[in-house]
Amino acid sequence: MIVALAGGVGGAKLAQGLAMAVGPENLSVVANTADDFDLYGLRICPDLDTVMYTLAGIADPVQGWGVAGDTVATLGGITAYGRDPWFKLGDRDFATHILRTEALRAGQPLSVVTADLAGALGVRSRLLPMSDDPVATQIETLVGRLDFQAYFVARRQQDTVTGVVFDGIGRARLGPGVGEALADAETVVVCPSNPFVSVGPILAVPGMAQALAASPAPVVAVSPIVDGRAIKGPAAAMLESLGHDVSPLGVARLYTGVIDGFVLDETDAGWAPAVAALGMEPLVTRTVMGGSDDRARLAAEILAWAGALSRNRR
Amino acid sequence: MIVALAGGVGGAKLAQGLAMAVGPENLSVVANTADDFDLYGLRICPDLDTVMYTLAGIADPVQGWGVAGDTVATLGGITAYGRDPWFKLGDRDFATHILRTEALRAGQPLSVVTADLAGALGVRSRLLPMSDDPVATQIETLVGRLDFQAYFVARRQQDTVTGVVFDGIGRARLGPGVGEALADAETVVVCPSNPFVSVGPILAVPGMAQALAASPAPVVAVSPIVDGRAIKGPAAAMLESLGHDVSPLGVARLYTGVIDGFVLDETDAGWAPAVAALGMEPLVTRTVMGGSDDRARLAAEILAWAGALSRNRR
After folding, report:
1. Would you call B82 an interface residue with chain A, using a CB distance cutoff of 8 Å?
2. Structural domains present in chain A
3. Are B140 and B123 within 8 A, CB to CB?
4. Strands B27-31 and B42-44
5. How far is CA B10 from CA B61, B65, B157, in A?
6. If DSSP codes are grouped into helix, strand and coil, which group holds residue A242?
7. Record: contact A105-B41, CB cut-off 8 A
8. Dihedral sign computed on CA atoms, order B194, B256, B179, B22
9. Cβ of B121 under 8 Å from any chain A Cβ?
10. Looking at the complex, does the CB of residue A88 fall below 8 Å from at least one CB of chain B?
11. Torsion over CA of B112, B118, B120 and B125, rounded to 10 degrees?
12. Mind giving me the DSSP string for B263-283?
């Protein structure tokens, strides 16, 4: 069994590659839920849904999130009522949020709701929320503390980030199945997601560090930074404003003590020795994923390499 | 000020005609809310919304309910999750239900939510739910008691109706503004809606009979039965199975003591003497409404006639 820790678009792409490489039933994806929020009275889980839609093969291939070909008539109706459509929600996407909210309000935990929704979409991998308990990422900026989606979507990541807070993390418990998946894992892959706001919350759930440490599997991470830039999102800007190197090394340092191996893009081969000096095995390859062929190729390459890694992280 | 009591499509059409005839600011519509129900965790108010969309000029002109030109992508998404799309909800319609549910859950009363939604759609008449308290029509049939929409939509009114129950009616209070509107009314028009399941619940709200009796306005009703058939819906079948004449007279008898005048279609002119014998003034005219010209003409005709009626109902 392979376990992937994933945020949004980048994480979802590699998770899909892993599902293709090992067969979807042999993959569990632990998804970030700290970007979940309420909008129009509905519970929205952007990262979780991006992974779900991607694994279901219905994600929008251009933007990476949302459902391919989705329309925005319901959001248009909401706009007609004078509400701000600042967060783009497609019509099919609304179906997800409506049914999830219904089930959550009926008392079902997010993990059960997610399994039901993903199953109905034909997802055969296990999609596990990092926690059933609400955790809310908040971003400290020069203009004050912002809810994550306010920072990320409404304000287009324009603010300088001075800190990241996971509200509720102290009371959160690992999602059902997460500990078991890690205990049974052959390899754990930290996907190329933002280390602060996508992977960070997953690693911060109480019990997660212990579960990773206790896992027999080698843990490897893929750099979301290539050639000094993030493939998507504010990872590079956050590395800089939070005082880290804007490089694969800067990311690798954040995972010291957690991972055994680190995957860098071939553009960044020069960083491999410094990564190795952190006590991690480096793998240099093409990490930028386009379509599904790319994703499957990268996933297979990572798994072949990681399978031979010793657990040297402690 | 004119007050209309309205159910769904037929009531909405005449309400629109009244708004055109006297100016929208001079009309208050008291709408049935006993067909409200929860679906997919959202609060759906079919009659209220039909009136709202019609007064806003955006109702589907063919089916009479829903929003003109609406698409069904969100419902398609819900269907893709394996849920039964037995109640047709359009995408723009979903926006209404989502925002209403959000506001209700935040503690706003239905009357406030309705005023906000209708106002945003440009409705200048006052749209008043009969009550802010939940009332649920249930239909006694040969196969047992059915929730109203199960009888009306899911089972297509195929069951023989043996009784009608308004669950919660005993605890319901008149909606804010309803009593005041009746006290200030020049004319009260009971629209051509189903007397059992559309007008019936409105009249059954505790305090409504007294408010109507105390109103200085003549109260007139328009027959929903023309030539032995209901223009729309199960009114004719319900009259028959509940032991009433399937005729304007059968409807007029149900309103004895409540109304001063009764409007029959010219097709049913032969019933006028029998209606008059009930102590009501009959008006015979064309009552079948097509487009807005028809609606405005009928409304103007009713108001001109009703204004000269004495209050003779007691």
Report:
1. yes
2. 1-133+175-314 (3.40.50.10680), 136-170 (no CATH)
3. no
4. unpaired
5. 12, 10, 17
6. coil
7. yes
8. positive
9. yes
10. no
11. -110
12. EEEGGGGGGHHHHHHTT-EEE
DSSP assignment letter at B232:
S
Non-local (6+) Cβ contacts of A285 within 8 A are A263, A264, A265, A266, A298, A301, A302
Mark yes or no for CB contact A117/B92 under 8 Å: no
Model ipTM value: 0.93
Please provide the size of chain A in residues: 314
What's the count of helices (H) and strands (E) in chain B, helices before strands? 13, 14
The alpha carbon of residue B167 is apart from the nearest alpha carbon of chain A, in Å, by: 22
- 10 Å Cβ neighbour count for A94? 29
Tokens representing B255 are 């309103």
Reported pTM = 0.95
> In the beta sheet, which residues pair with residue B247?
none
Q: CB of A107 within 8 Å of any CB in chain B?
A: no
Decide if B77 and A96 are in contact by the 8 Å CB cutoff. yes
- Hey, of A98, A104, A121, which one would you mutate to test binding to chain B, going by the most B CBs within 10 A of its CB? A98
Q: Are A66 and A42 in contact (CB under 8 A)?
A: no
A145, amino acid identity:
R
Q: Which tokens belong to A83?
A: 């509400």
Going residue by residue through chain A (314 aa), what tens digit of pLDDT does each one get? Answer: 999 999 989 999 999 999 999 999 999 999 999 999 999 999 999 999 999 999 999 999 989 999 999 999 999 999 999 999 999 999 999 999 999 999 999 999 999 999 999 999 999 999 999 999 999 999 999 999 999 999 999 999 999 999 999 999 999 999 999 999 999 999 999 999 999 999 999 999 999 999 999 999 999 999 999 999 998 889 999 999 999 999 999 999 999 999 999 999 999 999 999 999 999 999 999 999 988 899 999 999 999 999 888 766 64
Chain B environment of A49 (Cβ under 8 Å): none
Distance from CA of B62 to the nearest CA of A (A): 20
B117 touches chain A (CB under 8 A): yes
Nearest Cα of chain A lies from the Cα of B100 at a distance, in angstroms, of 9
Nearest to A41 among B76, B80, B101 (CB): B101
Alpha carbons A65 and A61: distance in angstroms, whole number: 8
- 3-class secondary structure, A124: coil
The verdict on a CB contact (< 8 Å) between A95 and B117 is no
Which helix or strand (DSSP H or E) is residue A310 part of? none
Chain B CB within 8 Å of residue A98 CB:
yes
Q: How many CA atoms lie within 13 A of A87 on its CB side?
A: 20
Residue count of chain B: 314
Nearest Cα residue in chain A from B81: A120
- For B:176-205, CB contacts with A below 8 A are none
| Chain A to chain B Cβ contacts (< 8 Å) | 108
